Amino acid sequence: MKVIKCKDYYNVSRQAANIISAQIIMKPNAVLGLATGSTPVGTYDQLVRWYDKGDLDFSEVTTVNLDEYRGLSGTHEQSYRYFMNKHLFDRVNVRKDHTFVPDGLGEPKAACAEYDRLIERLGGIDLQLLGIGNNGHIGFNEPDTAFETMVHIVDLKQSTVEANARFFRSIDEVPTQAITMGLKSIMQAKKILLVAAGKKKMDILQKSLYGPVTPDVPASILQLHPDLTVIYTESEE
Ligand code: GLP
User: Fold this and answer.
1) Global pTM value
2) Which residues of 57-73 are buried (b: 16+ CB within 10 A; e: fewer)?
3) Taking CB atoms and a 6 Å cutoff, what residues make up the pocket around ligand 1?
4) 147 CA to middle of ligand 1, Å?
5) Using an 8 Å Cβ cutoff, are 44 and 88 in contact?
6) The predicted structure's pLDDT at residue 135
7) Ligand 1 atom showing the smallest separation from residue 39 Cα
8) Strand ranges (DSSP E) for 91-227?
9) What does the pLDDT read at residue 102?
């Protein structure tokens, strides 16, 4: 595992964007696993800046996102499809039909199986970007998720619903279920890039990277990945 400590959020975003752009330069038709949450926003902004300068080309890239809320359509402002369109896909030359987000409205079993098959058909994920939840979740794999899970439906923990309520008008509007890549789906990515920012993430990051590997801390499984890069800052700026 490679751990890079940065002085602030801007540098976390630049370093992460550097690794993603190196991946695209090495393999223009790369399959990128992407993440939502506030942490990767700066990374996407940086990629867009380089795209605008003419340094990056997404025309052959395919993207697969980690997760989606159950019950929200892609046009809902808090859906992860909407988030990705707004922060990245609408701002670069990726082909929209090469961008995939799990189906939050489909019949659960079929939607999960279809997403597993999609990742397999694409030949797996070359580089998976991850944030980390306050309780150590990655994607929406909450504590106590079995390590061997593939794409599945989850009941969100109350603490996750509360953490994500800041994006909704009221907590009652926050979906209580999601469809997410499982820990096994994530671990099968060829490379993993985890970004974390701010003091409140430091304790869970420490536990994830150096504590026991246990389903109590879903991100702890990343310790076993052969190509993990972690980029973080303690700074709130
Ligand atoms: C959500 C997402 C995760 C993300 C987490 C942390 O729960 N499903 O993928 O890592 O939020 O988000 P933030 O970066 O805003 O702290």
Assistant:
1) 0.97
2) ebeebbbbbbbbbbebe
3) 35-39, 66-67, 131-133, 139-140, 160, 164
4) 19
5) yes
6) 94
7) 14
8) 99-100, 127-130, 152-155, 177-180, 191-197
9) 97
List active site positions: 67, 135, 137, 142
The answer to whether domain 2-233 has CATH 3.40.50.140 is no
Q: What is the pLDDT of residues 133-160, one digit of tens each?
A: 999 999 999 999 999 999 999 999 999 9
What is the C-alpha to C-alpha distance for residues 18 and 118, in angstroms, rounded to an integer? Answer: 27
Q: CA-CA distance, 229 to 21, in Å (whole number)?
A: 15
* Whether 237 contacts 199, CB under 8 Å: no
In angstroms, what CA-CA distances link 231 with 15, 161, 194? 7, 25, 6
> Which residue has the CA at smallest separation from atom 11 of ligand 1?
37
Domain definitions of the chain by residue range? 2-233
Distance (Å, whole) CA 165 – CA 197: 19
Atom 12 of ligand 1 has which residue's CA nearest to it?
37
Write out pLDDT tens, residues 213-225: 999 999 999 999 9
Sequence-ordered alpha helix ranges (H) in 29-182: 41-53, 80-87, 108-121, 158-164
Structure tokens at 159: 């603490």
Q: How many residues does the chain have?
A: 237
Stretch (H or E) spanning 231: strand 228-233
